[in-house]
Design brief:
The complex is a heterodimer of chains A (322) and B (521). Chain A is an alpha/beta fold and 322 residues long. Chain A is built from ten helices and 15 strands. In chain A, α2 runs parallel beside α3 and α4 crosses α10. The longest helix of chain B has 20 residues. Classes of the chains: A alpha/beta (322), B alpha/beta (521). The interface between A and B is medium-sized, with 31 and 32 residues.
Chain lengths: 322, 521
């Protein structure tokens, strides 16, 4: 029996169904190893939204007859885009998205991202989800992202790297419960972060600086509201359940640390003065599941003021670095 | 160089922790100490302590919290911690407690041994709570959890008040009390208990717990009804023929024979759990989602339950008691052979009641409630049975059209199922009933937390939505009292259903009289 669906998909591997989609889910991937996981997540997310899913597969170069847009009636398609110029990809993608549905772009790369393509595609989507932590040079990817966002402030942007720092932000904030500890915040002179992903460490720095009113004056240096210097040190950590393993903040007399325990099940926060412990908190550390983060990011779009402020600081630091 | 004044101004700007601003967290904000009365008992070690520990693991508890156990058993602090750690290893869904969280948790555990009428023990309790305020920063906030036999509820409240632990003697923080079910053993005792408690605690400070209400599928009843447009227009006498609410268990009375002898299925399940479910299914949409708006509607619908007069009791309510029988290939004793049970007991282990709701929405729609022990299958569910189609369009094929049924599954399965008719593929018009299922586990990819975690967390937050207000408790007792009194005065023909069955034949007859039929367990 002739499958009527075939007439809709002359050149694209895809599926056609009655369209109940409320969004386009556009996924860019360049990692052959994680391909199955990404496809599986995409399918689950597309059902949940519900959305048309268009997967830009940079692990495979297209044949010449695959260089055609996806018909709007196709609800799921994998589009090979390996080795294509950014403009060519855009020429394929733009008509495939149609004009009526909002588009979420999940930028899912593990190697150096095709930043020109990201810039170009970002202009045509409403919502962008990235994971700076997985980029080969994550700090650079993050700096690039800060520029993308500066150029496209209307974009609803989520970075999984930022979302992963949530428990650390909470843990650091918790160390400053005591009134005497809060009084030390304007006197912080040194911040030391141990992490195996620089992007997440940078997010924490951006967050601290934006909350405490620090201004960037050099690559790893801020001045606080009274003009005092705050020096930043990033130490490389071992790869663990959490990409961050410790944060130390010091004033002249006090030290505040948040340290992951050996079993990665808790963060111990300590407030000490002149070497003597004043207060210690133990906070449970809940394992972060990337699949859940992706789901949260895609299903709950919107901007986050703390994130935006941190990203602005990162951009300022990047400008000083340049 | 900043001047001192400038520096002071900047410091003043950080008077509240700027790092805390904007952080989203599910954590309960108010510090507090939770006091568990009955801390050496089964409920504490199986449910309440694991609930507290899992709230801690989930980072839901406030940073500043304490736990005090109070019971008759004599434990040192170390012994109580050992008891707690062993209980967690055996009963917590997260398994054995691990370091460093366990040590931190144990550091916040205190224990006071004493009888519930021992004034000295309450003085000790006050000293521990005051010390917690200083040492742990619990800010005078106290949550008292009565997980003791109901006979001592009143005494505990009196002693708390006498020791200066009532809310009126606590200007620096809040005081709340969670009262385990049963709230009274009949209408009079419930009223007496309410009178005792309300001398010390005001109604907004009293949290009457019914753990059924903390189950996710029960909370989902409101979401199903009021977060969808497709059900509420049908949710009335015009489209709904009947509603069946079932709370069936495979377990017997286990070691609770003594308690159950003075309770029975009507008191133990129907008066609280099952009527609460009825209220959620039948209530009008609340004006908003706050605790009192919802509880107002629940009270209204319970008030609209038609009182069953003596002359109608035989027609509207039936009872049963299990006899020897086989369940899952195992021969099990009848109720009268259970430990601590009178060999001639007249206590019902099964009850089924038909209620009518006298309001515009539900007039003439029967609500069939049943609950029993040692039945064939464990199953708690609400089944909304819709009326038959008004016109048989498909001729003979239409003979196979069953009624639509919407089932809200509470336990052991958690989800929603809709039964509807569909055409069987093929050249002829054959109609067949099919199910469309939603399951919590696969639908959301999460394991639902036990009800006690949700409810204790809510009480700590001061959210009483899932707790039963006194007026609803009172009206529920008022509606079941005629049946209780009638049953007490008349001898039943017990035992009348075997272990592992669907229940007594009289329950089938109750529905058959109106042309209805129980759903298969």
């Amino acid at each position: 029996m002739h499958d009527v669906r075939a007439s809709f998909i002359p050149t694209v591997k895809g599926e056609v169904a009655g369209t109940t989609a409320i969004a386009n889910l556009l996924v860019y991937m360049n990692d052959a190893v994680r391909k199955e996981w990404i496809l599986e997540r995409t399918e689950a997310l597309a059902q949940r939204l519900p959305a048309r899913s268009l997967i830009l597969d940079a692990t495979r170069a297209p044949s010449s007859d695959e260089l055609v847009p996806v018909p709007l009636t196709v609800t799921r398609a994998e589009i090979p885009v390996g080795q294509l110029a950014a403009e060519t990809v855009l020429a394929l993608v733009k008509p495939s998205l149609g004009r009526t549905l909002p588009t979420c772009l999940w930028w899912c790369t593990s190697e150096e991202a095709h930043d020109t393509l990201l810039l170009i595609l970002a202009e045509h989507v409403e919502h962008l989800v990235v994971d700076s932590s997985t980029a080969l040079h994550d700090a650079e990817a993050l700096a690039d992202l800060s520029h993308v966002y500066a150029r496209l402030p209307r974009l609803s942007l989520r970075d999984l790297a930022w979302m992963r720092t949530a428990q650390w932000r909470d843990a650091v904030a918790s160390i400053f419960h005591e009134t005497t500890a809060v009084a030390e915040l304007p006197r912080i002179i040194r911040v030391e972060i141990t992490a195996d992903r620089e992007s997440e460490a940078m997010y924490l720095i951006g967050w601290l600086a934006s909350r405490l009113g620090w201004s960037a004056v050099a690559d790893r240096r801020f001045i606080d509201q009274q003009g005092g210097a705050v020096n930043i040190f990033l130490l490389e950590g071992e790869s663990r359940a959490s990409h961050i393993s410790a944060i130390r903040m010091r004033s002249a007399s006090a030290e505040f640390t948040a340290q992951m325990t050996g079993n990665s099940e808790a963060i111990v926060g300590t407030y000490s003065v002149n070497g003597l412990t004043v207060k210690q908190h133990v906070m449970p550390y809940l394992p972060v599941d990337t699949a859940q983060l992706v789901e949260q990011a895609l299903l709950r779009p919107g901007t986050d003021e703390l994130f935006e402020a941190a990203l602005r600081i990162i951009r300022d630091l990047g400008s000083l670095h340049d | 160089m900043a001047t001192l004044t400038e520096t002071a101004k900047a410091h003043a700007a950080f008077a509240s922790n700027p790092l805390q601003e904007g952080l989203a967290s599910d954590r309960i904000s108010d510090p507090c100490t939770v006091v568990f009365f009955g801390a050496s008992g089964d409920l504490f070690k199986r449910m309440l302590l694991p609930a507290m520990y899992n709230l801690r693991l989930g980072d839901i508890l406030p940073h500043k919290f304490g736990i005090v156990g109070f019971s008759r058993s004599e434990y040192t602090k170390e012994e109580f911690c050992d008891f707690a750690k062993e209980s967690l290893a055996e009963f917590s869904r997260s398994g054995e407690a691990k370091e460093p969280l366990w040590s931190d948790f144990a550091d916040r555990l205190q224990y006071i041994g004493g009888s519930f009428d021992d004034a000295e023990a309450y003085k000790q309790l006050k000293a521990v709570l005051d010390d917690n305020d200083e040492r742990l920063g619990t800010a005078g906030n106290r949550l008292f959890y009565l997980s003791t036999p109901p006979s001592v509820f009143g005494e505990i409240v009196r002693q708390l008040n006498a020791a200066g632990l009532g809310p009126r003697d606590n200007p620096k923080g809040w005081s709340r009390i969670i009262v385990e079910k049963p709230f009274g053993t009949d209408l009079d005792s419930a009223r007496s208990l309410q009178e005792e408690i309300s001398k010390v605690f005001d109604e907004p400070q009293i949290y009457r717990i019914d753990h059924y209400l903390g189950k996710e599928p029960v909370q989902d009843i409101m979401a199903l009804r009021f977060a969808n447009v497709i059900f509420e227009p049908l949710w009335n006498r015009r489209y709904i023929e009947s509603v069946q609410i079932t709370a069936a268990e495979t377990v017997g009375v286990e070691r609770r024979g003594g308690y159950y002898e003075s309770s029975g299925a009507l008191r133990d399940m129907i008066q609280n759990h099952v009527l609460n479910l009825l209220a959620l299914v039948a209530m009008e949409p609340p004006v908003n989602s706050d605790a009192d708006s919802i509880r107002n509607e629940k009270f209204k619908v319970l008030s609209a339950l038609r009182p069953i007069v003596d002359a109608d009791i035989e027609k509207m309510a039936v009872r049963g008691q299990y006899d020897v029988g086989e369940l899952n290939g195992k021969e099990l004793a009848g109720y009268r052979q259970e430990p601590d049970v009178d060999p001639n007991s007249n206590t019902e282990t099964f009850a089924a009641v038909q209620f009518q709701i006298d309001n515009w929405r539900w007039s003439d729609v029967p609500f069939f409630l049943r609950s029993g022990k040692r039945l064939e299958r464990k199953c708690s569910e609400i089944a909304v049975v819709f009326r038959p189609i008004p016109h048989r369009l498909f001729g003979e094929a239409g003979d196979q059209i069953e009624r639509n049924v919407l089932v809200m599954k509470i336990q052991p399965e958690e989800g929603i199922s809709i039964r509807f008719s569909a055409k069987v593929p093929g050249p002829k018009m054959h109609i067949h009933s099919v199910n469309m299922d939603f399951n919590y586990g696969s639908g959301f990819g999460v394991v639902t937390a036990p009800a006690y975690e949700r409810l204790i967390g809510d009480a700590m937050r001061g959210d009483a939505t899932l707790f039963t207000r006194w007026d609803a408790v009172e009206v529920a007792w008022e509606r079941v009292m005629p049946i209780l009194n009638y049953w007490r005065a008349t001898k039943a023909d017990f035992p009348n259903y075997p272990v592992g069955s669907q229940g007594p034949a009289v329950a089938d007859a109750l529905l058959a009289a109106g042309g209805h039929k129980w759903r298969q367990l």
